Amino acid sequence: MHVSPLAWWITIGVTVVIFIIDIFIIGRRPHVPSRREVTVALVGYVALAVAFGIGVYFMYGTKYSAEFFAGWLTEYSLSIDNLFIFLIIMAKFAVPKQYQQSALLVGIVIALVMRAIFIVAGAHAINNFSWVFYLFGIFLIYTAIKLSRENADEDEEYEENRLIKWVEAKFPATSEWHGTAIFVREKGKLLITPMFIVILALGTTDLLFALDSIPAIYGLTKEPYLVLTANIFALMGLRQLYFLIGGLLERLIYLSYGLAFLLFFIGVKLVLHAMHENELPFINGGESIEWAPEIPIWVSLLVIVVTLGVTAGLSLLASRESKEPIDQ
Predict the structure, then answer these.
(1) Ramachandran angles phi, psi of 106, nearest 5°
(2) What number is the average pLDDT over the span 186-206?
(3) Between 249 and 194, the higher pLDDT residue
(4) What does the pLDDT look like over 246-277, one tens digit per residue?
(5) What secondary structure does DSSP assign to 45-99, as a single string?
(6) For residue 184, what are the β-bridge partners?
(7) What is this structure's pTM?
(8) Is 9 exposed, middle or buried (0-12, 13-18, 19+ CB in 10 A)?
(9) Per-domain residue ranges of the chain
(10) d(Cα 287, Cα 213) in Å, to the nearest integer?
(11) Could you identify which of 40, 144, 182, 187 might form a hypothetical disulfide with 260, taking C-beta atoms 3.0 to 4.6 angstroms apart as the criterion?
């Protein structure tokens, strides 16, 4: 797949413009978005992703289009799981509702920049060291097993990471909210605000999630351009999704199991690919393991769609049978 430098710059430029417009509009009028507002925006972002995937089909063929859709769906499903932690962070820091989307948007922008760095590093590693697929695969299998063992009914807790603890200890801060400002000057002293801490928490937390998502998507496509665009489209609609299905998230009780299965499947796919391209001298004498099958992308896409559909369907069915009201 040859993507011209112009296409790269146009993609990056359009992404930056969209986020700048978003930040400008929200920054001028912090508010709690209406259901209609987030629904229209979310449908728009999903439509853009679908249109992009169709464009890839006409320009590069079925294979790369399927890889994009598989990567986008995987990133989107992992992002939905991340929303659980975002809800906990918002509650822990008692973020006023009218400022939540501002915090989310800036945090997402930071996360996107850091993910781009991860994507470049991952592409470099893959191009130079084929054995890195072993590492990615084993890591995803380990993550899947760990995720599947977590108690679905156990309340998740957010624990501040070392960076946030260090910032809180080293920088003078105010305990009061000052709108969406991240810095404020009081009595001649520059202080950080709670908004600064919340944005840092959201950004660094999403960076930790990228440790799973970036290897996972590289198990579906080796094209950095598709990896980047899949992440862009997944993150673009994340803020709207937060407000649209915030209450419904608690009813997706089987989501973690579905994601665990997907991570396990992609991990196995990566290990099989590494065996097929094996260069490690202590495995089969450094020769390719010919019997190791390559799982085609259409199988991966089918597994992803069916897994997500079954997971969502069973979760909603179980929620309906419980007859518990869904929080709005």
Answers:
(1) -65, -40
(2) 82
(3) 194
(4) 656 666 677 778 888 888 888 888 888 878 77
(5) HHHHHHHHHHHHHHHH-HHHHHHHHHHHHHHHHHHHHHHHHHHHHHHHTT--HHH
(6) 191
(7) 0.76
(8) exposed
(9) 5-322
(10) 29
(11) 144
